Amino acid sequence: MINTENYTKDFGSGRGIFKLNLDVPRGCIYGFVGHNGAGKTTTIKMLCGLLKPDSGRASIGGVEVNQRNIRAVKKIIGYMPDITGIYDQMSVWEFLDFYGAAFKIPPKKRKSRIEEVLEITGSRFMIDYQLSSLSRGMRQKIGLAKTLVHDPDVLILDEPTSGLDPNARIEMKQIILRLSGLGKTILLSSHILPELSTIATKVGIVVKGKLLAQGTVKEISSKLQEDIVIMLTVDSDVNQAAELMRHVDGVSNVKIIDKSQIEFTYSGMRDMIGTILLFLIENKVRVKWFSENEADLENVFMKITNRAGA
Questions:
Q1: Which CATH number fits domain 2-222: 3.30.1050.10, 3.40.190.10, 3.40.50.300, 3.30.43.10?
Q2: Structure confidence by residue, pLDDT tens digits, 90-132
Q3: 121 within 8 A of 172, measured Cβ to Cβ
Q4: For the chain, which residues make up each domain, given as ranges?
Q5: Radius of gyration in angstroms for the set of CA atoms belonging to the chain, rounded to a whole number
Q6: Exposed, middle or buried: residue 283 (CB in 10 Å: 0-12, 13-18, 19+)?
Q7: Distance (Å, rounded) from C-alpha 30 to C-alpha 42?
Q8: Which strands make up the sheet holding 251-256, listed edge to edge?
Q9: Model pTM score
Q10: d(C-alpha 165, C-alpha 136), whole Å
């Protein structure tokens, strides 16, 4: 749904975006990850037609992003910046009606559409509130409602949970998941990695303007050959099982978690993990559960940035 080929914007002194190749499938929640200044917002502005690339190309929904197609692109996308610009003197209804008119939605349809986006974002109770009276969390909800007014297929959200309290972040995450369920393709920039990892179906990690990894967290972790953390549950002597594990090649950090659980790290070949289970069974350990812990986005991100010297 979103594709870039060698997308580049060079501001000099190593700042900018360099030969970026994004691949965001239809219906995906794509987490765009990077340090402040890595180039996330620059990429987003180019995709929205707000900044012209120096070279390369991009397409959204099959439409090439360029000045000739900018009206068509803006119908496809809904862009929400990290701070939503609002008109303090307006009410919520007036604000959304203004944007509906800007997108040339007929007045009769506008009313029902405004009610719909307020419902989706959990903001219906704010319909007559003055924008100047809204909290940061409320403003973000109304900013997202504004982004949805013209019913775009693609949502580009730049740090939508930045500055929000924990409850507001949870609400925003639930709204994003709801929008994904409605079939929206979502490009989501964020630096709150634990939160992002719970909703993103695919991530792209950008460091110093270069895309260093792209895919699911598990795929990226596998390519990095990251050590695998495994949880073992036994129905026999946990101390005996732990002692056996300490003598297995490639196994380290053996920890007894409780009376039946052991956690350990394996750094050998992934396709040899099954031999560990076989070794335990042959040594009369009754295994109830044997599973790999899910890869962690924070750890993957740190490993990639450390390798890049960032």
A1: 3.40.50.300
A2: 999 999 999 999 999 999 899 999 999 999 999 999 999 999 9
A3: no
A4: 2-222, 227-294
A5: 24
A6: exposed
A7: 17
A8: 251-256, 261-266, 228-234, 287-292
A9: 0.76
A10: 9
